[in-house]
Amino acid sequence: MALPVIGVSAAIEPARWGPWDAPATILSRSYADGVQAAGAVPMLLPPGPVAADAADDVLAPLDALILTGGADIDPSAYGAMRHPETTWMRPERDRAELALARRALALDLPVLGICRGMQLLNVATGGTLVQHLPEELGHTRHQPAPGEFSEHNVRLEPGSLAARAAGAERVSVHSHHHQGVAELGEGLIATGWAEGDDLIEAIELPGRDFALGVLWHPEQEPADPVIRSLVCRVVGS
Question: Would you say 47 and 37 are in contact if contact means Cβ atoms under 8 Å apart?
């Protein structure tokens, strides 16, 4: 039996390798490693006009879609003014991934959103974001410093897709974000919350085959079962 193919969204960022210094389509290796460890083939999906304008064609060869972490979503995508702390945006990526997310949900293609990817799922369904959590929460525990992951506990709704995917109703997670969900998108429900401040950490869309967003980074922990749960759902379907 052929291995399932999981589309994994990538970023366009300045990069340096060898003698080169140029914009590059990039993705942390941990995502691809996680997909391969789960027994699937990762397919890198660069942002651009093909994904934005022909999402069905991009999704056609895929068995599932992972929307990855990265830059802040341009607040114009959810009808808001830019906060001064919203400084790292990639509108080209937003357009491509919003198109992919909306079509994947419409086609009932299994979708997992990770960090930015969870926020993007919320925006794709009409939701909004808190642009700078420290102002709302009064602390920086979810992003202590650039490039540094925090560890904290999350409680998950018993029986939810999030709890089944994580394999428990209380998990320790790695986080790195300064934004989060404000108003939930149409049809979405919150099924995970950070202990200590009740920040929404997991969202899902009931009635879909697999539509889950988590605000933490499961790819940072090889033993984390969330990515594997997506692949297992595809294999079992």
Answer: no
Q: Does any domain span residue 157?
A: no
User: Annotated active-site positions, please?
Assistant: 115, 217, 219
Nearest to 177 by CA among 130, 219, 223: 130
pLDDT per residue as tens digits for the range 79-127: 999 999 998 899 999 999 999 999 999 999 999 999 999 999 999 999 9
**Tokens representing 16?**
């340096």
| Residue type, position 70, single letter | G
Averaged over 120-145, what is the pLDDT? 86
Q: CA-to-CA distance for 15 and 8, rounded, in angstroms?
A: 19
Q: How far is CA 27 from CA 32, 43, 84, in A?
A: 8, 11, 27
Give domain status of residue 161, yes or no: no
- Cβ proximity of 124 and 65 under 8 Å: no
Q: In this structure, are residues 31 and 77 in contact, taking their beta carbons and an 8 Å threshold? A: no
Q: Can you give the residue range of the structural domain that contains 120?
A: 5-129+181-191+198-236
Domain-embedded: residue 102: yes
Are 109 and 60 in contact by the 8 Å Cβ rule? The answer is no
Number of domains observed in the structure of the chain: 1
Structure tokens at 125: 């369904």
